[in-house]
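As the next step, I needed to go through one protein, both as residues and as discrete backbone shape codes, included below for the reader:
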Amino acid sequence: MQDLWTFTKALNCQRKALLVVIGDHGEAFEEHAGNLYHAAYTYEENLKTPLYIFDPELLKEIEVKAPTDHLDLHLTLAHLVTGSSSSYLATPFSRDLLESIEPKLQVGLSLMDGGMLSGRWGQWKVMKNHSQSALFNLEKDTLETHNLAQSRTDLLEHYLAAINAWYAFTKNYLTNPTDQKEPLP
């Protein structure tokens, strides 16, 4: 990424140009048993994607350490192209990365093998499929090997309710995008 940054900066573009390089998904190499590609689970290796944006007028690097998602990209690109933040593309789950890099709910969804849904809030991540749920503290367990679901049922229930609300909101939003009167609580 550093080589790409140096190269694009050296181009010295004379007109407005925007270069965006992004991956659409992560890739797994059996860090977790049976997780050998990108679509069946929502572990961190499945969700982490590279993102590089070069804007010659901005001419500075912005490093975002908080997790982001593709919903954030829509608002950020619109801001770069138009010069201002747009509420038209905003949802309760998106943010403009030029305006805010505060942690927010990050959701992952896989429809393979019966489906898996996950949500991440700062250090906490919850995952669920049709038969089980898991809770991880990513600050202490970056490999997602110590499931805390049994010992932290309070957090598990709270985060499961939040990702279920996200799923219901998103399903409704996709089928009725103009019928959104109130943001999620």
Observations:
- The chain has a mean pLDDT of 75.
